[in-house]
Amino acid sequence: MRVERRDPAFQPKNPVNRKREEPVPEAKPYDISKHLVRDAYRRVRANRGAAGVDGVSLAAFEKDLRNNLYKIWNRMSSGSYHPPPVRRVEIAKDNGGTRPLGILTIADRVAQTVAKMVLEPLVEPCFHPDSYGYRPGRSALDAVAKARERCWKFGWVIDLDIKRFL
Fold this sequence. Notes:
mainly alpha
């Protein structure tokens, strides 16, 4: 028979955490709403795409959608999310060669979309106005248009590929 102390000083403040395994405020240190995860899933579903290394297609993911989205939310909000491996596929290039393409699992695409939706509004204001690579609402054509505009103002243009700069 188990005997519990009835002294309020020994009772957990929150009845959810009766075993006192961890402080309740730190159980979910990241404020990620379930609605955000569902919105991220809708974006992933709209983009379609192939199954990742786990072989789970969008149709299979949707069969247990509520549980799958809950797992993503739970792991991300608790800080215990770890991405699975990426499936590598070779795709043909115009010049006859191939290049590797990584295909993420559906769950990882949702998790990355959640991260993008949270982080993008925070970091976007930090970028230089002339930064065009991988930015929302900006494209390579926008960069070319800006370069063309500057050709009329300046007598020189610098085109620099940082990867091959050294």
